[in-house]
Hints:
By secondary structure, the chain is α/β, with parallel strands linked by helices. About 35% of the residues lie in helices and about 25% in strands.
Amino acid sequence: MSIPEQHRTAISTPLRIACIGGGPGGLFTAIALAHSAPDATVEVFERNHESDVFGFGVVFSDATLDNIDRVDPILRDTLADHGRHWDSIEVHAKGEVTAAGGNGMSAVHRRVLLGALRHRALELGAKLHYSTTASVQSLDEDGGYDLIVAADGTNSASRDSFAADLDHSVEEATVKFIWFGTTFQFDGLTFLHKQSEHGNFAVHAYPIGSDLSTFIVETDEDTWRRAGLDGFDMSSPPGESDAVSQRYLEELFADRIDGARLVANNSRWANFKTRRTARWHSRTDRGTPVVFLGDAMHTAHFSVGSGTKMAMEDAAVLAQTVAEHASDLDAALSEFEQIRRPQVAKVQNSSVPSLAWWDHFGEYYRELEPWQFGFHFFTRSISAEKIRVRDPQFVEVAELAWHEQHGAAPLETPLKAGAVVLDSRLLSVTAGTADSVTLTDGTSILVANQAAHEAEPLFSAPDSDRTALDKDSLSRLDELCAGGPGAVIIKGGTELSRVLASEYVRLRHHVAAIVIEQESCVRSRRAVDRRDCAATLVLSGRADAVAFDTLDESEIDAAPSRSEL
């Protein structure tokens, strides 16, 4: 939304700023402004009582703490004094454990963090109003504020009142999740997978201090209904929890948590909502600037990032730009958005393959062996060579497991595709049209076309980053696989849709799948080179072979010494 020139007035007196929402985003806004604009008056309005805290742990990676710590040490100090830290992440599946190190993270109970932020904000002079319902309109009419900050969370009423200005969009995941705590003490971030008579369930668990661990459970909707967990009245007041699901999950995972109890706190099933917003600031009818931050504007799946972390980083940058442009808040808010938008987009983009993983985890659990299931999980948004830097042994274990089964490294394992035997799984495209391609490993030739006449079938993936393929695409893949092909070659679409199509062919129909990648995919898949990109896709079970549009003969013939066993 462009700002009319008449609203761009200089402000010579100290700013008066109101924050709606007393969560980490709102409180850290007050803290950050106390440092960057010490003359400003900052008031925070929270509708709940200060003792009302919903949820359990908040988690931060070591790499993300610096931006927040540069503003104020309160988060780092709170994590050091009351939180838990770990370096390794574990995946438990079918009685086996896959662990990857080099993932430094910390977590603390949300109640503890909010208490520390509240104390620090008061110490720095902020005024906090609890049990006080405030809207942008009421503050604008009564408060005389120069700026209103809306940090009222994912269900933001403030955002909804500016819907026409902000161009807000929501994508809902298909998988259900519910948030509990448990008295069982996990050592670090742990993923538990279990199959009941109703279907697959998975747990994200991590210690948060206060003698508790966070315990988030996910399952698909069909399993959720078969298990009879769909009876909770979602119109129940905030604070009430789903006791039926609590008992069911407590019994299901009893052997994994030594019979410890699950702790409920506003625990109810939901579908994760990814929120994106085209514009992050607006104005009231009276001309007061309003800026939005945190979950009110953007969310990323909890498997890759912390909404708390992103909200606090928003607050840090907002305080900086407001201090630098106190007399021109339009410039301040525009710069805030200009700085933070690409940073948030990076997190959201990296969360898409992870969100897709959780939408399909039940099938991965059923079809992949435990070592490959774990490797598939850890490489959902990063390559094998990037992980090798953090934990060489983790990658070596996966490579050894492959070698024991196939007698060669992933890219040097022959692949039979109909009448053609490919000696390498790293291929090149030597010719192509809209409906046909010719692939080679440097020796053999494989032809594919969309008509599948005297050739392997060629499938064009949809141009979509949705976490599941559309029905038409699935029907077309079913049709292609019903013909008994030696392999299905997949081109076009997006990185995600190509992989989803490949996995559907491999895991649902047990037909070989070859994915055609572009050079740009090396970077976007966070790989070091083409070989790394291809080896990661093959070793994880996402594809049987990978072809690039252009490939030097030296790359085709060279064996990767790092993966020789």
